[in-house]
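User: I'll paste a sequence; please echo it back and then give the predicted structure.

Assistant: Echoing your sequence first, then the prediction.
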Amino acid sequence: MRRIGEVVDATTAFMGAVVAGVTLFLPVSVTTQSRTAPYRIAGLLNSVPRSAALAVIVAVTVAVLVSTTARPLTGWATATAGALGQLINHFAGRQVSTAEMLTTQNYIDSVCGAVLLGGLGAVVLRRSLPAGGFALGGIGFFAFGDLAELLDIETDPYAVLETPPRWMIGLALALLVVSTLRNWSHTEEPKTPRMAIALPVTPILAAMVLALVVLAGTEWLGRQYSKLPGESHAVEIGIVVAATIVSATAAAMLLPGRDGTGVYLAVSLTAAVDAVGYAVRPGWSAVLLIPLAAAGITLGARLSSAAIAVLLVAGIAIFAMVTSTTANRVGFAAISAVIALTAGYCCGTARPRYPPSGVLAISALYLPSAVSVMPDRLDDVTVHDATPGRTALAIVIGSAIGLVVLRKFRPRSKPRPKGQPESESLADI
């Protein structure tokens, strides 16, 4: 029965993380009454990076607060409340939504998704199988691509969408209720307070530093491209890349032990995948790519190596630098498989010992990057632009240097007080 319960909680963790990921990765739009003006859609799209940055901070804050309690019920109930609030937002939006409210609804959706992500991560990252489900759901958008066909989303850029769809939120909510009831009376063994729990502000500060610096840098770079669209902006790109690495380093040093590894891998992977691009994938491709990501998680947990993870991400960046996938279906299919496997391997290798650190690493995947604000050049596929790939590779190299520094100044593990158990994590899968 305990094994069945673990499978149920892992399924819940997967669906909850998928809903939160779709929420942070795509803008919400919940009205179908009339066509929305283009400038409203533009405003909605511009709010996505800001809502994602806000969500990172909220998710880590919720995870820290939940982690200070001894009852898993707190985390499950918090995640359930987040999903319920999101479902209410979607149902209410159908009745009262207007073009002027789209951006506000997107922020509400992001906050609810962040509460779901933080509450869920705080409890499931302590256990091996649910932790794997949470990680798999969190990186699912890498396998899903732009989700257009899988979620039956219209491709018209001015069409009114609903992301995530209500059926997906409802399914996650139902599973969360089941897991909440199943964990109703569970309690954890008393533990000697850790420094991260005695001073819970440090992971929150890490989330704020990373999210706000990355957001400010990418928005500034986007404005530079708007002012001078024909320029290379090499200096500006270098500044944003440096700011990204510095903020990731600050965040990593604020986290306990070597938990900052996940932050470095997250910012590198995001930039590399942005450089490849998010093209439309058929819905059935998830049947192949999600198992690859799951295999990557298992492999990374059992044969973890930050060096291999960095090399895999660097390979994706180099691929984007030398090859264009816009007109090469075979190449795009191959790199998609590599991305799914690499994303999973990075999750398994990160080994977060403190649950909020894992929540920060997963939520950081949804932050913008220096590559994501670069203008698309899809109109002329015969001319390949290597700038996104070079930028991603620079971030990967900077992260690799940061990882070396982190391992030099942080020991592999600190002695634990006698009788203090160690929580399970992705490393225990």
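The first helix runs from residue 2 to 25. Confidence is low (pLDDT under 50) at residues 154-160, 189-197, 414-429.
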